[in-house]
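Task: sequence design from structure.
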């Protein structure tokens, strides 16, 4: 099942005395924050809409102030808060793009349909993403390359892997 809300940032700390906070963006386009009128914050099991009063994107991060937050003490209470957008307001994906949260939990299978494991995480060290796959033998790190992972169907929760490529590219903790 695809997530209804997508993480786009985490509040790191207050900035100044007027209620602004510094946000670590969890998006490939920090300027995305300038297009938003609101974000969602998770309260228990529910997501509450929070209006953005002002926002600026700088070289070292995103700075924003939520409506009703007007001093440093109120901003301090937001430290560690996770910020989300609903899927309806998420950026439009290009062909062959997926949201990372939609990959987590996908079943990884070989070309014959034999289960290899489950996608546990996606690392972004630069160059290309790396899938962390939990297998019965332990963890496997696999680069997100089209010739290695020819197909991903997030609707079905399925990642197809060309098992013949594994010896040349996979890093496993069981060997």
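Answer:
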């Amino acid at each position: 099942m695809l997530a209804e809300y997508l993480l786009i940032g985490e509040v790191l700390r207050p900035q100044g005395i007027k209620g602004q906070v510094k946000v670590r963006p969890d998006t490939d386009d920090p300027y995305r924050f300038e297009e938003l009128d609101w974000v969602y914050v998770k309260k228990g099991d529910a997501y509450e809409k929070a209006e953005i009063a002002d926002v600026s994107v700088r070289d070292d991060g995103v700075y924003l102030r939520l409506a009703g937050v007007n001093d440093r003490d109120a901003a301090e209470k937001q430290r560690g808060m996770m910020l989300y957008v609903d899927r309806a307001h998420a950026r439009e994906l290009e062909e062959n793009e997926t949201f990372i949260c939609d990959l987590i939990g996908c079943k990884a299978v070989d070309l014959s349909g034999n289960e290899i494991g489950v996608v546990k995480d996606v690392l972004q060290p630069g160059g290309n993403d790396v899938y962390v796959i939990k297998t019965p033998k332990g963890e496997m790190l696999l680069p997100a390359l089209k010739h290695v992972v020819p197909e991903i169907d997030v609707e079905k929760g399925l990642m197809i892997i060309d098992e013949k490529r594994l010896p040349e590219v996979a890093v496993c903790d069981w060997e």
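Residues 147 and 162 are 7 Å apart (CA to CA).
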